[in-house]
Amino acid sequence: MDYTLHPLSDQTVAIEFPQKIDRAIHMKIRQIGLLLDDKQPKWLIEYVPAFASIAIHYDVKMLNLQTPNDLPYDIVTTELTNILQELNEIEVEAPRTVKIPVFYGGSTGPDLEEVAKHNGKTPNEVIDIHTNGEYTVYMLGFAPGFPYMGGMSTDIATPRKNKPRLAIPAGSVGIAGEQTGIYPIETPGGWQIIGQTPLALFNPENEEAPTLLQAGDQIRFYAITEEEFHNWKENGK
């Protein structure tokens, strides 16, 4: 599979694949991350995976610059090219499946009926379609722990709202185009909100794993009642 390397900043290299949401591309990006974890080049600060690219941040001070003409970008990309020769040897473990409870509709899902109307469905049909899908977390972004997921049925695809809301509660489950996602914190946003999960997607006090989800996870949604939702919020389940 073809990819290109190019600079994003004076200390960042991007490896880019064809710009589309594709599971094969996603697997290659996961392989690159695992390969970097294994090789641990001394200049590596961190890497950030996205839908069709991975950004690699490096520390110029850790490069072996011999002359004023040595360019950090050239040194890093040369090493990366050599490292990537082993890409096909990296095995990716089976993804974990995370089940997400959602109370659909009501005050927590104010756009459920709009999504249903847009697609010529009933609200219950939208819920059935949404809960019967299996979704891949391709990347986290926008807000800490916000999962961008692929795999949603086009039968419930709905454009973003023309006028974003100023505040969407944490845990809100939304639809935008052919994607579904979950707001991890209260934030402005324009996705169509169809429900809310009582789970906390972002916990800054958990330094080792501040986000509930990570790229590569497989997500399944299931419906809960309003009573179950409030009990979960109050008691942890």
Automatic annotation (TrEMBL):
Domain of life per record: Bacteria
GO molecular function, one term: ATP binding
Carboxyltransferase domain mapped to chain residues: 3-213
Xref: SUPFAM superfamilies: Cyclophilin-like, PH0987 N-terminal domain-like
UniProt entry tagged with the keyword Cell cycle: no
Keyword set, alphabetical order: ATP-binding, Hydrolase, Nucleotide-binding
Keyword Kinase: no
Species this chain originates from: Jeotgalibacillus soli
Name recorded for this polypeptide: Allophanate hydrolase subunit 1
